[in-house]
Amino acid sequence: MLAGACKNGSGTLDASSLSASATTPDAHHSYLPWVEMRGFRSALARATPQPPDPTATPVPTDTPVPTNTPTPTVTPFPPGPPSKLGLFITRNHPSVFNLLRTGGVAVVKTLELDFNFARQIKEAAPRVKLIGRIDLPQLQLNNLNARAAAQDYANRLWPLADHPERRRHFDGWEAYNEPVAGNADEFKRLAEFEAERTRLLAQAGLRSVIGNFGTGQPPLEMWPHFLPAVAEAQAHGGWLGLHEYSAPTIYYNTTRDGRGRYPGVGPHDTGWLTLRYRQVYNQFLIPAGRAIPLVMTELGVDGLVTNRPGPANALGWQHFQEYWAQHGFGSWGPGAYAEQLVWYDQAMQQDSYVLGGCIFSLAGSPGWESYEIGGLVESVLHQYFSVHPQR
């Protein structure tokens, strides 16, 4: 999630200063319904609940007669290439396996590290790539001893990762979530930490997933300082992790922004929040010969992008459903969100270096309910994954 949105408390990103030029949209067809959901109001929990204002004691009234809510008939997605969408999960839940058994999920990032759970994931979806992240405090880069910090991380991870079942089923391990370097010196320390961590894990036969920067981070001019870590990851089969979110739609501040509900996407489209990864690869990693495999270890719609259109206090996708209905992005919120995720999947499919991207979130932690895709979004994605299996 955005720095500050994903358990770091490190602030939010100002999107108002970001811009991207538009290009000619590709053809795009609707495979989801347009259903008028009259009287819809989102009443879901927010990530940081605030104390409610005092209210008067309610006066009992007659129970109103319920009105019929239209049930949308979803037009199935047609078959297509393997999906690169994946899942961010924090706990074991039947919905996880409901989607895994479609065969279409590309990657799973989990905070639940139980080895039986990991085995069940791979039994349900043998082709899925599984990434783990242990619970760590935020990294303090201003006075970091990079080599000592890397050794400390390895010491923390080793008792878990060395279990035979976890060795068999986990494909990669993250370190600190959404590190933020305030200047070039701090970024160099971060690169040294990730390079040393990658070497230590490689010596133990484990893969490192480096970076895992928050949305819109780091500033593009900082990337040359991170190339030593990318080179070390490349030498040891490591992967790069990035987080990409936008709001009020996943298209916002991309070169497809302003193109409506079906903006299309091509290989040359980029963005400052979502599709930002293409700027990183095109400007820095590909020219340097360092186009290592990439996983978006978190992605989606996140209202903690500030100075943006849409409801000011919105957080996860569920808080944007009315906005989408009012602005032509689809009157049935779960379907509208699935369409946006499929758009992002189509972009990832155009880049061979992308392994996949993890939707935040399924079976999420308490406090993150407005980001939850279990239920109706899950049902739409189930059909999509079923006709976009891994091969």
Essential attributes:
30% helix, alpha/beta, disordered N terminus, 391 residues, 8 strands
Q: What does this entry look like structurally?
A:
By secondary structure, the chain is an alpha/beta fold. The protein is built from ten helices and eight strands. It has helices at residues 94-100, 115-124, 146-161, 164-169, 184-203, 223-235, 276-285, 321-326, 333-349, 376-386; strands at residues 85-89, 107-110, 129-132, 172-173, 209-213, 239-246, 294-301, 354-362. An eight-stranded parallel β-sheet has the order 4-3-2-1-8-7-6-5. The longest helix has 20 residues, at 184-203. Mean pLDDT is 86; it is low at 1-67.
Task: Give a brief outline of the structure.
With 391 residues, this protein is α/β, with parallel strands linked by helices. The protein is 30% helix and 12% strand.
Give the topology.
Blueprint: E1 85-89, H1 94-100, E2 107-110, H2 115-124, E3 129-132, H3 146-161, H4 164-169, E4 172-173, H5 184-203, E5 209-213, H6 223-235, E6 239-246, H7 276-285, E7 294-301, H8 321-326, H9 333-349, E8 354-362, H10 376-386
Parallel strand pairs: 1-2, 1-8, 2-3, 3-4, 5-6, 6-7, 7-8
Helix pairs in contact: 3-5, 5-6, 9-10
Supply Rg: 21 Å
Structural class: alpha/beta
Please outline the major beta sheet: 8 strands, parallel
Read across the widest sheet, the strand sequence of neighbours is 4-3-2-1-8-7-6-5
Bulk shape: globular
Number of strands: 8
Helix content bin: 25-40%
Order of helices and strands: EHEHEHHEHEHEHEHHEH
What is the helix tally? Answer: 10
Strand content: 5-15%
